[in-house]
């Protein structure tokens, strides 16, 4: 969003990118995240658990909790799949859409040096986005297709995806 505004409307940046607008965007995203997470938690709390109560995961994931239930969990799995796809593909789609707009705007810049500077700025951010999304999407697909049965491998993939991009932020920028 920031790069879209900065590249497509640089002279209007300060009037578009206001503190109030940022507050509304942040509040909207936090509300969406809470709504996305509250339903699976409520449904998981209603399940009967009759076996072990030890969850084989250190992340906040619903799948390992659902597996402990002693009833049909197909609805819960469908809800978790829909939630995960929304949480992963929604922001990724928005990011890709904004970058398509940015690329179209940058190709219209006459100066090659300005064009390269804009592409360089966007490329570093896009690299970090891909470093985050690719391992998470890969872990989700492999886990959902049951191609990864090893919980430690699944945990390692998720750990790398949430720790590597923040560590690379200062280096890349």
UniProtKB/TrEMBL annotation:
The chain crosses the membrane at residues 22-45, 85-106, 118-141, 153-172. GO terms for molecular function: odorant binding; olfactory receptor activity. SUPFAM superfamilies: Family A G protein-coupled receptor-like. PROSITE patterns: G_PROTEIN_RECEP_F1_2 (PS50262). GO terms for cellular component: membrane. It holds the Pfam family 7tm_4. It is a multi-pass membrane protein. Keywords: Membrane, Receptor, Transducer, Transmembrane, Transmembrane helix. InterPro entries: GPCR1_Superfamily_Member, GPCR_Rhodpsn_7TM, Olfact_rcpt. The keyword Protease does not apply. Signal peptide: none annotated. One of its GO terms (biological process) is G protein-coupled receptor signaling pathway. It is found in: Membrane. Residues 1-173 form the G-protein coupled receptors family 1 profile domain. This is Olfactory receptor.
């Amino acid at each position: 969003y920031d790069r879209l505004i900065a590249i497509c409307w640089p002279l209007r940046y300060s009037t578009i990118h206001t503190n109030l607008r940022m507050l509304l965007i942040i509040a909207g995203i936090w509300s969406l995240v809470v709504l996305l997470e509250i339903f699976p938690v409520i449904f998981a709390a209603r399940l009967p658990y009759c076996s072990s109560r030890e969850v084989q995961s250190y992340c906040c994931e619903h799948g390992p909790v659902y597996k402990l239930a002693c009833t049909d969990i197909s609805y819960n799995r469908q809800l978790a799949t829909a939630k995960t796809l929304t949480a992963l593909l929604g922001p990724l789609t928005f990011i890709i859409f904004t970058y398509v707009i940015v690329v179209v705007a940058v190709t219209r810049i006459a100066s090659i040096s300005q064009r390269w500077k804009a592409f360089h700025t966007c490329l570093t951010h896009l690299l970090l986005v891909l470093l985050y999304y690719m391992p998470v999407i890969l872990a989700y697909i492999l886990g959902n297709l049951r191609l990864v049965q090893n919980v430690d491998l699944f945990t390692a993939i998720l750990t790398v995806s949430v720790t590597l991009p923040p560590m690379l932020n200062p280096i890349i920028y």
